[in-house]
User: Which sequence fits this backbone?
């Protein structure tokens, strides 16, 4: 099978590439413009086994069309996007152009070139503000409160419409909750992640907490402690990147026999920002400073998945549903960069 991974030099895409290289005999091609991804990640992955890497921007419509027509992929896993909520509030068109317009072109080229399976990275941000303390099901209303979430929801709709029109073109849409942790690679008994999260600037909570613990930052800002949650800080569902990546491998098999569908990817478990800070302190036994600052624009109080659909429908079994392991792997990775 020939698989194209867009955004495979990025955080999540690289973990899926790693698993495909290690667990399958698929011919893997990564397409990435390296805007937020890293060439060093590609170099690391090349040590596992050979694959093709093409540095290209999805906005190059003619080149994308020609490339897909020539290569005739069986499946596409589409990660390439911008994904910082606050940036999308300041520069919405940047998000609609990259996440929605470029995705629409990719879908069209995929269908024209005979791709049969398309796996799409969507987000819990499509749900918007939900009632607190209720785990979110895929059937809940979608009301994004930021352009990032809307850019992904629009892509979901476009993908669904395209597939209705071309029934041989099937999709899985995954709505990720908060992806975290790093490669669970062990050298003897030591956890030594080879790849992990490396954004510049970094905006995600867990890497920022471990950077602070390592003294790379002076203190950690907690964005608001006046939310309607037990300790006042926001609650999220943190899923280990290895488990999340593995669901994509399952999705390729799933689409052999099953129809297109949408699935949440989370653990159905929420932790507050303050609980994450304490978990990192407990795991790595280093104290550091935190300060409460104003809420961040676009943040919602509570985002926790109901993952019963993916668990009951796919052969997906999470292996790292453990906050300690998430924090430990993020910390071990952060020490290497
Ligand atoms: N990280 C999370 O917690 C999270 C949560 C929900 C959804 N997602 C989604 O998952 C996907 C991957 O997220 P990530 O955290 O790995 O992000 P990332 O920024 O690390 O990876 C995105 C990759 O896509 C590439 N890219 C972006 N625009 C491109 C373009 N026009 N052409 C070619 N390559 C392009 C970047 O260079 C990068 O390598 C994104 O679609 C994101 O919206 C992430
Ligand atoms: O320095 C920080 C960074 C984050 N936070 C808080 O930590 C929580 C998690 O924030 P992240 O930036 O790590 O993640 P988000 O929940 O904002 O967003 C992530 O998960 C979303 C879905 O839940 C989207 O998919 C999005 O793409 C992805 O970045 C939020 O309450 C945020 O306010 C802080 O308090 N301090």
Assistant:
């Amino acid at each position: 099978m020939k698989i194209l991974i867009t955004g495979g030099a990025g955080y999540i895409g690289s973990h899926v590439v790693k698993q495909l290289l290690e667990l399958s005999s698929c011919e893997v091609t990564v397409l990435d413009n390296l805007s937020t991804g890293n060439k060093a990640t590609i170099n690391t992955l090349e040590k596992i086994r050979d694959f093709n890497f093409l540095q290209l921007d999805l906005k190059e419509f003619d080149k994308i069309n020609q490339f897909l027509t020539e290569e005739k992929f069986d499946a596409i896993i589409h990660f390439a996007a911008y994904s910082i909520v606050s940036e999308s509030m300041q520069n919405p068109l940047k998000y609609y152009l990259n996440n929605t317009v470029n995705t629409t072109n990719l879908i069209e080229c995929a269908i024209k070139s005979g791709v049969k399976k398309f796996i799409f990275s969507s987000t819990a941000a499509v749900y918007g503000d939900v009632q607190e303390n209720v785990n979110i099901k895929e059937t809940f209303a979608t009301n994004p409160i930021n352009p990032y979430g809307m850019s992904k929801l629009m892509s979901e709709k476009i993908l669904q419409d395209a597939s209705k029109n071309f029934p041989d073109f099937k999709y899985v849409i995954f709505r990720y909750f908060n992806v975290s942790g790093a490669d669970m690679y062990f050298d003897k008994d030591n956890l030594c992640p080879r790849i992990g999260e490396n954004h510049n600037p970094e905006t995600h909570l867990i890497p920022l907490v471990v950077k602070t613990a390592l003294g790379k930052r002076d203190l950690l800002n907690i964005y608001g402690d006046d939310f309607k949650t037990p300790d006042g800080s926001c609650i999220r569902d943190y899923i280990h990147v290895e488990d999340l990546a593995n669901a994509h491998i399952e999705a390729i098999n799933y689409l052999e026999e099953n129809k297109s569908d949408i699935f949440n990817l989370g653990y159905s478990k929420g932790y507050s920002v303050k609980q994450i800070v304490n978990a990192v302190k407990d795991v790595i036994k280093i104290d550091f400073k935190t300060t409460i600052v104003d809420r961040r624009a676009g943040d919602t109080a509570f985002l926790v998945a109901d993952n019963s659909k993916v668990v009951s429908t796919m052969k997906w079994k999470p292996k790292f549903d453990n906050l300690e392991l998430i924090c430990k792997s993020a910390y071990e990775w952060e020490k290497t960069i």
